[in-house]
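Batch manifest, entry 17 of 40.
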Amino acid sequence: MLNGVKVEVPYAVTNAQWWTGVAIKNLDASSATDPIRINFFDQEGVFMGMVDIGSLEPLEIYSRTASSIYPGTLPSNYSIMISQPGSEELAVTVFVGNSATGGFAFQTYNSQVTTTPSWYQILSTVERFELVMNNEAVLDRETGLVWQRNTIDTQYNWYDAQLFCYYTDIGGRKGWRLPTIDELATLIDPTESTPSLPDGHPFTNAKSSHYWSSTTDAKLTEFALLANFSNGNLINSLKTTSHYMRAVRSGQ
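Output type: structure tokens
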């Protein structure tokens, strides 16, 4: 993930009588933006496509109706996310108008700064975690890892846990794996117990129990390492025993 800003507009409307306009303003008085991209999502949160609109000079405004921006047919309800990789502050105003009455309403959204994941960061829970992929996954901004949000109730041995990750579909996407022990340990908050996750975490059905990692014990190869989310300890277990698992996704 690049340094940059992101503006999410959660709700927009278009049909025969209603239209949506979008105005993007560069609030940085001294710097031009990097190229701005508008991402479109349907009413189910599924990504539809993106449009690059170029950059804005300081205090410059870009304004256009969404129907003239997006190359295809928009659904009756959709959302947009405006993003760019720089650090300038953006303000995005969405106008929803009625062509029959001439009336309209508008809402302005300010940009949120996003930072490159760095493992030296210590972020608050609110800053650290973000629900992504139709709310089925959790982005950890400290590490850049994307985690399966919900713990399924079935426990697997080490071999089947890895196969489950390889074949699973979360948020409409594949590419999941079992985390390494150091990745799994990043979720542990040593000040918390039952479960040992950061207070206010967004995970669902979290178990105060053992979770598999993909890491084999260096001395006992028939064992693999686990994280105990009851007390935060790291232990080993025979690979043939059954425990919980949480899939992870990354660019590695």
